Amino acid sequence: MQAPEERFEALGVRELYLSVHPENRPARSLYDSLDYMFTETICEYFGEGEDRMIMKKILNTTKSSSLSPCR
């Protein structure tokens, strides 16, 4: 997950969002460890019984990077 985050940061993206099933504890734990924050739960995101937690990470866009947005 670090490589895409660095690429987005180099492109000036300030926030990343993802969705995860509320009962997927291993994934939630991973996202927590990567500094993603819970923002909301959306009921029936993928249909009946398919709720999702939305998580957000704020990127440090002040950091300069030599990544090319073309690769």
Q: What keyword list fits this structure?
A:
71 residues; alpha+beta; three-stranded antiparallel beta sheet; 3 strands; 27% strand; elongated
3D architecture notes:
The chain is an alpha+beta fold and 71 residues long. The protein has one domain (2-58). The chain contains 2 helices and 3 strands. It has a 3-stranded antiparallel beta sheet with strand order 1-3-2, covered by helices on one side. The longest helix is centred in the N-terminal third of the chain and has 9 residues, at 2-10. It is elongated, with a radius of gyration of 14 Å.
Short description:
The protein is of the alpha+beta class.
Poorly predicted runs:
none
- Helix/strand-derived category reads alpha+beta
Major beta sheet, specifics? 3 strands, antiparallel
Radius of gyration: 14 Å
Mean pLDDT value: 89
Work out the strand percent.
25-35%
User: What is the succession of H and E elements?
Assistant: HEHEE
Total count of domains: 1
Compute the separation of the termini in Å: 16 Å
Q: What is the approximate shape?
A: elongated
Counting H and I runs of at least 4 residues, what is the number of helices?
Answer: 2
How many strands in all?
A: 3
Helix content: 25-40%
Strand order of the largest sheet: 1-3-2
